[in-house]
Request: fold
Amino acid sequence: MNGDTINIALVGCGTVGGGVAHVLLAHADRVARRAGRPLALRRVVVNDPAKPRDPLIPREIISTDIEAAIRDPNVHIVVELVGGLGVAKKVVLDSLAAGKHVVTANKALLADAGAEVFEAARKAERTVCFEAAVAGGVPVIRALGESLAANQVTAIQAILNGTSNFILTAMAEHGMSYSRALAEAQRLGYAEADPTLDVDGSDAAHKLAILAQISFGVAAKPHEIARQGIDTIDAMDIRFANELGYTIKLLAEAWTGGHTHSTNGAKLSRGGAASAAHANGGPPTVALHVAPVLLRHTDLLAQVRGAYNAVLVYGDIVGETLYQGPGAGQMPTASSVVADLIDLGVGRAQRTFAAAKLWSREGRGFTVEPPERVRSRFYLRLQVVDKPGVLADITRILADEEISISSLVQHEAEEDGAGGPVPLVIVTHYAATGKFRKALERINALSTTAAPAVFFSMGD
Ligand code: NDP
Ligand code: HSE
Reply:
């Protein structure tokens, strides 16, 4: 950095960028004290300069000229808050090539092109900071990269998408419809520009890919992470889950073969396949997946509500630690972005970045466990024709795949709906995902199955 003041160019000034600009301008003294020198907002680049912005932002620093911001020799740090893969990737790579440090909240970009971005940063001897990319305002990147550095992480169980958690909470606690809850999450600034990424599990998979890189040195591409979103959950599933004593949460999970910690015994079983592969002398494996999971009402993660995120990390030395807080939204995310700027100002971020060697060739030997080997109990909801023999056909298929039934719920059909399809809910004992899916294919092909089966993992 040249001189005392650090000059910042903000590329993207929407929900998060607007929050960052506000914090830098409204709390300039506090930020300067913490950074040991002033952090000055010199340029703000947007798509539409005519849009109303925070009144603290001087009009004359707003432009649409990305190149000018990146090439400005007085700018030391470029903050990329455009989002997506196209323009954002160019901003990040060009900024590094121009000798700027980069701060970003763009998990989609890091999950997709982390290796390229970090290689470019090392080549340019510059730093990329990304605390805001995972769990918004919750400092989980620092926790994993710095505070837990003495540990090998053995498992992670996390709520990483604020929008999905907000929708599930609104549906379960306020009876809100899925579409209204999603619209509300968008209004509150939680959702991605394309909210499909939130509800189909992609955004959580992007974040899990980043956590897996930090924790296991695994460079899993998002499409390699088994993924199911909340878009298959019906209000009926939330009611059935509640009746059974469970809450549905979208979880991002990583289980290694070395995971031996267990608070309730069940967690071990969910990582069982990975344990088996490791015990047989194979390379250490980590199972990565994002999916709705039924958690007992008393489970810590079941109690995380609204747009809050929570990350349970199991370390081989520390044991179980929990990080929780607002996972989306303007100010929580801005809090993490500005913390990265302060760390760059102090000079801490540069040293941590150099030591961590993220997305480098220095892996830790972990490979990704094939999803079909992961063991779980399953919640299975079927719409079946209410006639003799239907249940026998289904239980025969499950038995063929060595899947044992733990409990079963079928309510009597409404009188006026007699003979029509009725919901049938089956909870299984532990089964390998591959076998369960095979059984599903056969159940879905039965003439008495009126709609494709809906299924989720059980958290215990
Ligand atoms: P927004 O859509 O609110 O903001 C995007 C900003 O980028 C806008 O200011 C827009 O300009 C600007 N922009 C878009 N295209 C261009 C372009 N071609 N040239 C210049 N500027 C452009 O997104 P968010 O603030 O919600 O998200 C930003 C990033 O932060 C994303 O990567 C997102 O995933 C991540 N993130 C978001 C969180 C959240 O809670 N919203 C939480 C954590 C991470 P204009 O204002 O003129 O339209
Ligand atoms: N759309 C994301 C979410 C923003 O809802 O979690 C935070 O990364």
About this structure: The chain has a mean pLDDT of 92.
